[in-house]
Amino acid sequence: MKNIVVLVSGGGTNLQALIDAEKSGIIKGGRITCVISSKEGVYALERASQNGIKSIVIPRKDYTAIADYTRAVTDALIAEKADLVVYAGFMTILDEQVVKAFPYKMMNVHPALIPSFCGKGFYGLHVHEAALEAGVKLSGATVHFVTEECDGGPIILQKAVPVENSDTPETLQKRIMEQAEWKILPEAVSLFCQDRIEIIDGKAYVK
Ligand code: GAR
Fold first, then answer.
1. Distance (Å, whole) CA 178 – CA 140
2. How far is the CA of 72 from the centre of ligand 1 (A)?
3. Which ligand 1 atom is the nearest neighbour of the CA of 111?
4. Active-site choice (110, 126, 128, 144)
5. How confident is the model at residue 151 (pLDDT cuts 50, 70, 90)?
6. pLDDT class of 43 with cuts at 50, 70, 90
7. Looking at ligand 1, which atom is closest to the CA of residue 89?
8. Domains of the chain, first to last
9. Which whole-number Å values give the CA distances from 162 to 84, 130, 165, 188, in the listed order?
10. Is 110 considered catalytic here?
């Protein structure tokens, strides 16, 4: 059984999707052993506690330098014996220390079809604002490995979702979460836990 540690910063609906998937047997070969939050008092922590999952808060605001913050999170991940680290709405970009400690063992869910609307500054509702501004007719979600390049690691799974004429950033976010994120994140986690993701020449392939 692989130890899955989930990093969160907010409401934690993606964490909930992982918890539900574990309960219903969709995640094979792994279990969520710990949730780490970059913020105190977020609802994701409540979800962990309601489900008997250990949680740790490492507040971003307590650290000035990102290197020190990354060290603290990396140490916690090592102490938790994480086999897989899942960024599920984690709003801090950690530096290369954590990537070196967990190479191709960290995945992130991003609320757009990478390489569109991604990179520094593209997070949460900003991503959907940018998609609506560009007038795209399809957006969606991507699960990818975390590397040193923000949102630039090998893509594992993607799912497209239609954009409606009447969409606001909020309605588009909700549709993308419901139709894409909450499905492909547990699926990618399960594939990883079954050792079914292969990296060849910097690209990820499902076996
Ligand atoms: C999700 O839409 C996730 O894809 C996004 O933030 C939201 C978190 O929601 N993540 C990013 O934008 C990271 N670049 P949640 O806390 O309810 O899972």
1. 10
2. 22
3. 4
4. 110
5. very high
6. very high
7. 8
8. 2-198 (3.40.50.170)
9. 31, 15, 10, 22
10. yes
Mutate to test the pocket of ligand 1, among 7, 13, 92, 183 (most ligand atoms within 8 A of CB): 13
- Band (pLDDT 50/70/90 cuts) for residue 206 is very high
Q: What is the pLDDT of residue 23?
A: 98
Q: How far is the CA of 82 from the centre of ligand 1 (A)?
A: 21
With CA atoms as reference, report the closest residue to 160 among 140, 184, 187, 136. Answer: 140
Tokens 């690209």 -> residue? 203
- pTM of the predicted model as reported, rounded to 2 decimal places: 0.97
Ligand 1, atom nearest to 8 Cα = 16
Task: Give me the mean pLDDT over the 136-147 stretch.
Answer: 98
Q: DSSP 3-state assignment of 106?
A: strand
